[in-house]
Amino acid sequence: MAPPAQSQRSPSPSQPSGKSELSDLKLQLRKFAGSRAPGVDDSKRELFKKVISYMTIGIDVSSLFGEMVMCSATSDIVLKKMCYLYVGNYAKVNPDLALLTINFLQRDCHDQDPMIRGLALRSLCSLRVANLVEYLVGPLGSGLKDSNSYVRMVAVIGVLKLYHISASTCIDADFPSMLKHLMLNDSDTQVVANCLSALQEIWSAEASRSEEAPREREALISKPVIYYLLNRIKEFSEWAQCLVLELITKYVPSDSSEIFDIMNLLEDRLQHANGAVVLATVKVFLQLTLSMTDVHQQVYERIKAPLLTLVSSGSPEQSYAVLSHLHLLVMRAPYVFSSDYKHFYCQYNEPSYVKRLKLEMLTAVANESNTYEIVTELCEYAANVDIPIARESIRAVGKIALQQYDVNAIVDRLLQFLEMDKDYVTADALVLVKDLLRKYPQWSHDCIAVVGNISSKNVQEPKAKAALIWMLGEYSQDMQDAPYILESLIENWDEEHSAEVRLHLLTAVMKCFFKRPPETQSALGAALAAGVADFHQDVHDRALFYHRILRYNVSVAERVVNPPKQAVSVFADTQSSEIKDRIFEEFNSLSVLYQKPSYMFIDKEHRGPPEFADELGNLSIGEAEDNVVPSQRVEENDKDLLLTTAEKEETRGSSNNGSAYNVPYDSAASVFASQTQIESAISNPTTAGHSQQASFGIDDLLGLGMPAVPDAPPSPPQLKLNAKAALDPSTFQQKWRQLPVALSQELSLSPQAIAALTAPQALLRHMQSHSIHCIASGGQSPNFKFFFFAQKYKESSNYLVECIINTSSAKAQVKIKADDQSTSQAFSTLFESALSKFGIP
Amino acid sequence: MISQFFVLSQRGDNIVFRDYRGEVAKGSAEIFFRKVKFWKEDGQEEAPPVFNVDGVNYFHVKVVGLLFVATTRVNVSPSLVLELLQRVARVIKDYLGVLSEDSLRKNFVLVYELLDEVIDFGYVQTTSTEVLKSYVFNEPIVVDAARLQPLGPAAIFMQGTKRMPGTAVTKSVVANEPGGRKREEIFVDIIEKISVTFSSSGYILTSEIDGTIQMKSYLSGNPEIRLALNEDLSIGRGGGSIYDYRSSSGSGAIILDDCNFHESVHLDSFDLDRTLSLVPPDGEFPVMNYRMTQEFKPPFHINCLIEEAGQHKAEVIIKVRAEFPSNINANTVVVQMPLPKYTARANFELEPGAVGQRTDFKEANKKLEWGLKKIVGGSEHTLRAKLTFSQESHANITKEAGPVSMTFTIPMYNVSRLQVKYLQIAKKSSSYNPYRWVRYVTQSNSYVARI
Fold first, then answer.
1. Nearest-by-CA chain B residue for A160
2. Separation between Cα atoms, residue B196 and residue A407, nearest integer Å
3. Any idea what DSSP says for residue B145?
4. Which long-range contacts (CB under 8 A, 24 or more apart) does A172-181 make?
5. Which of A267, A580, B235, B396 stands 20 to 30 A from A784 (CA)?
6. How far apart are CA A189 and CA A705, in angstroms?
7. Which residues form the MHD domain (chain B) (predicted)?
8. Cis bond before residue B403 (omega within 30° of 0)
């Protein structure tokens, strides 16, 4: 009889004293291994528990592998489970020993009890050892056909596990098609759901490797499959419902009555207590109605209440996830939520990440009717004990001021902030007043009076100090002390650590000099001297530049440094609208919480089933000049870019998250601001791209007004394409998702064409000369993929093309979608003829 | 799809750790804990429930001081993962009776067993306590509930009032009672969290009720249950003018802004007679969540005054009046108020004969705290505090202090007047008469008076 070791009885894990403890365990396990004496199972349970508790806290107990396996011969299911858990954890690092377990696991796969069969099969597939895959195929095959749904459920996920260990084994055994059959026929909905998960994962991983994968993936969102799942949706567990709903967002209904059918069927899902189900349903509704403006609007109204309910029920974490989505919707359609602003008031006990979202929402929904109340509320927060939030609230007031036409009351409030005598409040308020003055110069009189009372000694933060100095320079004629304050600041030049402040000081003293020369001259001299001697390159350069331009001609200097300024009508947005659209497409995902599209934070191999948008992003990375791609613009997000009046109001309607706050405002920028043309040409690569395209366009006009060359087939009606067609990527994506495939065909390519197609760019230029423009391309030999578009001459009817070229088979798979279906055949002919001329000089 | 699941203690120890897909490196628990612990240098801000470190997304929810964490590398639905984590905590609680570090450590093998069935290769299989029963074989080791902090909103029933069987809510769904017999009973809790903001002049600026009807059933054989709510209950504010509901604040209809339901709930006759029918699954679950912005009578009226009394002194007077009937008591009331940063001392003065009250000046964050064990309906309490400043105050003192916030629990009282009119259990036999507990409670969510 084995003596039950008293010390092992303690159930809570304690640090093993070292090697001796492990070898002790080993010995005891050995003792029990062969024993069938009564009570042995209880002692084994205690031992196993101990081993697993060590495993949990991260102590390597893999050296017990052999003993654990020996002990596994038991009918006690609790013991079995512990053993399976252990084996699953260590098999990967002990592939040789893992072989020992195969035997008993395989035997258990044929057990009478379905529970044991399922457990054994799950453990068998969890070993993650490549050289054992041969042992998996048999049990998995019979598991999929098992009469018990638990076993089938486990087997389906087992197939997916096998795929990850050895994709070829899984595909060769034809498991995917078995899963497909199960998915469409099994009576158990969890089996169905698992099949769906597994197939999605397998086909998207295979997509790059096999020909059939994309087709199989398409098949998952085909009408019969979608309808089959939709009809059973209420049988699914809430988690599986989420899976199905996500799949439905990818489905393209053929007409609006289908859309309404789906929405009516899913309507009650919006009343579900599980936030994940509701958000998944919301996504379906939003995606389905994208092209139906009125209905889309109704959807917003409909989903408002359920989302607000979810925000206020559930744990803080759950409400945060929902609130982030609400935030996205508010940002897209602030007017829909403008009467619900009270829901976005902060509560004192909320975490800052929630308050921050709410402040942004309050800023967005502010309009003529609610601004007074919102600003009053925000002013309460400004006195908040939570300093970061207090500051954020002040900025929010400033942003509202910048987006409103009637800023009367707000200006007063902001000026009150300046008098509050809290240094951080003053700092933020100064920056805001400065931005406000850039937009509403007419308020300068009121503001300057208050700003003039602020002692520059109380302002320490560089941004605030820079703002104050800017105002001193800009309004030096109205501020009596301006030259003297600047002078005292210049005296302390060496103590000023921020280069930004020193740069501003230089410019401000220049401006002051032009307005009040006698009082400023000496200060200017001191500033230029200090600036030229400055160790900071920019400061040095600017001082030298001022010095030289002053020597050249003072009036030229004034025109450069202090030109008359136009008021800034809209401050540049921090995020481009393309980015926002991408995030919206990825509704109900992490993108919404992080406020960035997934390609910015997910590694490529984990991006999951790439949706269209994703492909577009990936494909375009290799591209150079012809097409400016949205994804690339993100990184360049040029902070020095000031939106000028030319870009005006249209940006506002959809997205006025105007980050007025950190927009640079030095005078150099203002010079450009007054010269719209130059500025946009210099700082906006997009425009540069456009003009380049435009010149291409001219070439086109010369080279080809008549795409149909003399020997073209005469039958189809003459279709003329617009050589200067333009379509932005997000519209393209939207259209691509909505339109049905009008034509799908396979074309053969000439050997010359294949020879010419060394890089995608070659074909791009060729097609462009035929007025067919590329919006995204990518791939490497032998597989290339292109998305083209073309526009009917003098009409806004578009043609969209997906073209996959395989150079080794010299074939092109072409899919055409068209706004106007009736002309798609004509366009196809045109496309074919354009393609056939590729490579022929 | 998640990659790993783990539970960490407050100190950051792994209590359970399950790796489902082997895509995320083993050290993830430490990386996570360090990130959460030191989110911002100043320690002022909490880490958000979801964040990304080196391509790994970390999700967490806090339950009774424990961190329930999931990791993944793919772009999943954050709601799904956070709901799942919360649900896993609930399933474990259903099994163990009490969720705490101690009970988890004692039952970690059982928890592993549960985790294996709840999630396979990162995909959720089931979170139904009932379904799981047939797959899980370990017996829970029940820990002493009395000295542990319980989980969930129903936990408030454990304190105070004798009428309620306090320990019942902490009993395991699967473990047998000491007597061997299982008691047939069902709990229905109507829990309302209220948020009110008073303006400095005492007007109500915003008010909201977030309610839940929570159910926990220990009935054998899963009988069908009918729950009848107020017949004059209506849902949705659509249509009517904003004044429609104002007139009803007396004794008229109850208007919910919106509500949602657990999936087991059938709403077939809800539109007709406001009854919900359901076959309650095992374990604790919310039958219905609702939200209401209809005007209601706030249970407490707060009055606060702060006055300068000389260059370095000021006086604060806080009055709290209970506006509910005298047969009802509020428990564990705490009133808090941030004081000016330059406050050096505070001397408190309670009304003569005050019992069960305590006062405190929290030096570190310059906060005044006033605790009252019990407030009887209809009564009024006053606190005076004389403040001494370390420097002369030159700004408006009301901008430097406040707002006053209040936390409380009022058992057997609900402000919305939503009621469970009856709770009908489909009878198995004439002698079948299980215990039914319908309990109401009102709690503060954000109860604030500005000064």
1. B121
2. 30
3. S
4. A173/A137, A173/A140, A173/A141, A175/A140, A175/A144, A176/A202, A176/A203, A176/A216, A178/A141, A178/A144, A179/A144, A180/A216
5. A580
6. 59
7. 183-450
8. yes
In angstroms, the CA A175 to CA A157 distance is 11
Among B17, B123, B266, the residue to mutate for chain A (most A Cβ within 10 A): B123
Q: Which ranges in chain B are annotated with CATH 2.60.40.1170?
A: 184-297+413-449, 300-411
What single-letter DSSP state applies at residue B139?
P
**CB contacts, 8 Å: B135 with chain A:** 115, 150
Per residue in A386-404, pLDDT (tens digit) is 788 888 998 898 888 887 6
Residue given tokens 């998915």 in the structure block: A183
H/E stretch holding B7: strand B4-8
Cβ atoms of residues A327 and A361 within 8 Å: yes
Structure confidence by residue, pLDDT tens digits, A620-666? 333 333 333 333 333 333 333 333 333 333 333 333 333 333 334 44
CB nearest A321 (choices: B78, B259, B289): B78
Chain B closest-CA separation from residue A744 CA (Å): 32
Place of tokens 């690339």: A632
DSSP A485-501: HHHHHHHTGGG---HHH
Element (H, E) at A396: helix A387-403
| Strand, helix or coil for residue B300 | strand
pLDDT of A524-537, one tens digit each? 999 999 999 988 99
In sequence order, what DSSP letters do the residues of B85-127 get, joined into one string?
A: HHHHHHHHHHHHSS-SHHHHHHTHHHHHHHHHHHEETTEE---
> Cα A472 to chain center, whole Å?
42
Structure tokens at A162: 């096998």
Reported ipTM: the value is 0.88
What's the whole-number mean pLDDT along residues B69-79? 95
What's the CATH architecture for B300-411? Sandwich (2.60)
Query: Which two three-digit tokens encode residue B74?
Result: 């793919």
* CB-facing half-sphere around the CA of B300: CA atoms within 13 A: 35
Q: Taking CB atoms and an 8 Å limit, are A320 and B49 in contact across chains?
A: yes
The helix (H) or strand (E) run that includes residue B18 is: strand B14-19
Q: Tokens for A654? A: 């959809």
Position A703 scores a pLDDT of 38
**Residue B289: which of A164, A313, A422 has the nearest Cβ?**
A313
Q: Which residue of B57, B210, B394 is in closest CB contact with A312? A: B210
A747-778 pLDDT, tens digit per residue, is 888 877 777 777 777 788 888 888 888 887 77
From chain B, the residues in CB contact with A588 under 8 A are 77, 79
Give me the amino acid identity at B262. H
The model scores a pTM over 0.90: no
Residue A199 near residue A170, CB atoms below 8 Å? no
Pinpoint the residues of chain B covered by CATH 3.30.450.60: 4-133
Least confident of A192-201, A830-839, B9-18: A830-839
Rounded Cα gap, residues A47 and A28, in angstroms: 8
* Predicted confidence (pLDDT) per residue in A137-188, tens digit: 999 999 999 999 999 999 999 999 999 999 999 999 999 999 999 999 999 9
pLDDT at A513 over 50: yes
Pairing outcome for strands A798-806 and A811-818: antiparallel
Give the phi and the psi of residue A675 in degrees, each rounded to 5.
Answer: -120, 75
Residue A700, number of CB atoms within 10 A of its CB: 19
Q: Reduced to 3 states, what is the DSSP secondary structure of residue A653?
A: helix
What is the spatial distance between Cα A689 and Cα A696, in angstroms, rounded to a whole number? 11
Q: Do B79 and A607 touch (CB under 8 A)?
A: no
- CATH code of the region B184-297+413-449: 2.60.40.1170
Tell me the CATH class for B4-133.
alpha beta
Instruction: Select, from the ranges A332-336, A566-570, B309-313, B428-432, the one with the highest average predicted confidence (pLDDT).
Output: A332-336
Answer yes or no: are the C-beta atoms of B153 and B191 closer than 8 Å: yes
Q: Which two tokens stand for residue A433?
A: 């007043």
